[in-house]
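FORM 12-B: Structure-to-Sequence Request
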């Protein structure tokens, strides 16, 4: 029976590496996969999923106006597909997560989503919140803070290297912009006053 999966973590935990490896495992066994990534994140080039360790693959893109059920359905009409992989799943809307859940239920195709759980303010992304509510299985992709403890939070760095307390939820960037931290060191970086407010003040 097909399932909706959510693999979540902080920045630089290797989510894209795991996605590409899982897709390769299907392909190696003679099966086809369908890769999707967000238009918003084009650091590796438009329509491309790439890992920090140097592997990558072409993918179709989705944006705020994409009907994910329709997109998966059209792909299945072209031939067999063993699994759908969605990178940067935090950028999905709640409605799009429901569309993927429908694809799992009605089209009987597994969908594996990979994305961030929380933003730099410690708030859930809309797509991640919906996936936490709807996914059949959730798996944490772990990485570590500089202190060696598990990192569960992400801080956005300003030009001076200090953690920012407010700003737009979405700002594309890599190691120069974000750092993964345990909760204690995130609190130290952004200040306890931010924690739990959700307003960046």
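FORM 12-B RESPONSE
SEQUENCE OUT:
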């Amino acid at each position: 029976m097909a399932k909706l999966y959510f693999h979540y973590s902080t920045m630089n935990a290797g989510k894209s590496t795991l996605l590409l490896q899982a897709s390769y495992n299907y392909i190696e066994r003679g099966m086809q996969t369908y890769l999707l990534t967000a238009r918003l994140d084009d650091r590796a080039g438009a329509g491309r999923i790439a890992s920090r360790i140097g592997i990558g693959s072409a993918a179709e893109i989705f944006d705020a106006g994409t009907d994910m059920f329709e997109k998966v359905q059209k792909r299945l009409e072209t031939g067999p597909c063993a699994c759908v992989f969605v990178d940067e799943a935090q950028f999905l809307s709640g409605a799009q997560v429901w569309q993927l859940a429908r694809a799992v239920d009605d089209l009987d195709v597994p969908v594996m989503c990979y994305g961030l759980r929380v933003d730099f303010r410690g708030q859930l992304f809309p797509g991640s919140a919906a996936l936490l509510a709807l996914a059949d299985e959730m798996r944490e992709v772990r990485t570590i803070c500089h202190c060696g403890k598990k990192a569960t939070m992400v801080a956005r760095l300003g030009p001076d290297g200090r953690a920012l307390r407010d700003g737009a939820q979405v700002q594309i960037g890599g190691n120069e912009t974000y750092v993964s931290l345990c909760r204690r060191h995130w609190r130290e970086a952004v200040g306890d006053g931010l924690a739990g407010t959700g307003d960046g003040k």
